[in-house]
Amino acid sequence: MKDRLNLYRLASPATFYPFAGAMIPFFAAVSVVFGLAGLYLGMLVAPTDFQQGEGYRIIFIHVPASWMSMFIYLIMAGWAAIGLAFNTRLSGMMAQALAPTGALMAFISLWTGAFWGKPMWGAWWVWDARLTSELILLFLYIGYMALTAAIDDARRADKAGGLLLLVGVVNVPIIYFSVKWWNTLHQGSSIAMGKSSMATTMLWGMLLMAMCFWMYSIAVAFMRVRTIMLERERHTDWVKALLAGDGK
Amino acid sequence: MIYWHSFADFIAMGGYGTYVWGSFGVTALIMLIEPIVVARNRKTTIARLKRQLRAETRNTAE
Of B10, B46, B51, which to mutate for an interface test with A (greatest number of A Cβ within 10 Å)? Predict the structure, then answer.
């Protein structure tokens, strides 16, 4: 058992592949459970907001998606740093597997933000520091995907992409602290350690939805990384053995 | 427990229905379609790699 949990062994694609495959149903199921509980609390139980009316309910997806868009980027940058420092095979594959999901989270954040902004501010979009830096995050994701897709050699693609990720990481604290550093139209954070300006059911609804988005992202990234592994390791014995078998 | 008085109330979202359901609808669509696309991509990749592997082993056998 101790041997199976060895992180160095997990870092090898041949070991990570079956591990990820076994974990996908778990993360998917947990995501659905958290999602149903979060939607129940947020959409059916939570009271209205005295300022924003029922329109505030958009935050139950807007905030989790925004968190995930930043968090996934940080994880990708972390993998990029490990990959550039230690030249590990798994890092580039993980970063590539996470990118489309991160981009979609950034898109959901902007889309739901626009649908919240229209009734609340009277505009779908404003060039506010928070919104603009989140848009830049979406462009960083798209730029990373385009760059790595344009380079045929996988290891060189990982290096170039990794560099882009590390340079772009400066944008994440800018997004996060933008509502403090500048006078933004976007409201400040409603959640802080110890003191949250929200009703308990609202807070729980949002945290459950955040867990749902988190587990969803892991499940989809694991699905994607397994395909990337087969593609990149197609000349290795373990992939050949898999393909000769049933390909599971 | 349930905050809403009726189903129509729930759908109307106090006049914010378009915005709330426009947000949730697109998000749900994305989170349904993404795994489907990834799974389909995996199937086609496996099929292609299997074809390549068969072609390679045929060539080395000859």
Answer: B46
